[in-house]
Write a structure and sequence with these properties.
single chain, 134 residues, 54% helix
């Protein structure tokens, strides 16, 4: 079977900056278990961008609903799409436009909780301990 792949040639800091600049909410809706490593969402969190993502990959650990962002199940595409639009319409957008202080708190939590935990130091340490020292 063919596996659809998005490849960004010469991916570097500049391209990553363009992907995350000016982003208010990081939307990530892979079809589980087809999630990649999710490092762009981690990078967004470091920049204060909360995620609205399927609970897959790192976001299973990183999502604290309404604190670091918002999660969804990701096991039924039609139901998940409806739930995504519902969450955007009834939670995320009203909070962004009408609860700015609360939205800023979520941005701060994305940095403080996810940015401090999901980082390169942790990743390398886990690779060493789980892959090389076992």
């Amino acid at each position: 079977d063919a596996i659809p792949v998005a490849y960004l040639p010469n991916y570097d800091v500049q391209l990553a900056r363009m992907m995350t600049s000016g982003v208010d909410v990081w939307l990530n809706t892979p079809q589980p278990p087809l999630e990649a490593s999710g490092t762009s969402g981690m990078k967004a969190a470091l920049n204060g961008v909360p995620s609205l993502s399927v609970l897959d990959g790192w976001w299973i650990e990183g999502c604290i609903e309404g604190v670091t962002g918002w999660g969804g199940e990701g096991d039924n595409r039609a139901r998940d799409a409806a739930a995504l639009y519902d969450k955007l319409e009834n939670e995320v957008v009203p909070l962004y436009y009408g609860g700015r202080d609360r939205f800023l708190d979520i941005m701060r939590h994305a940095i403080a909780l996810n940015g401090s935990f999901f980082n390169t130091q942790r990743m390398v340490q886990q690779y060493v301990v789980k892959a090389y020292l076992t």
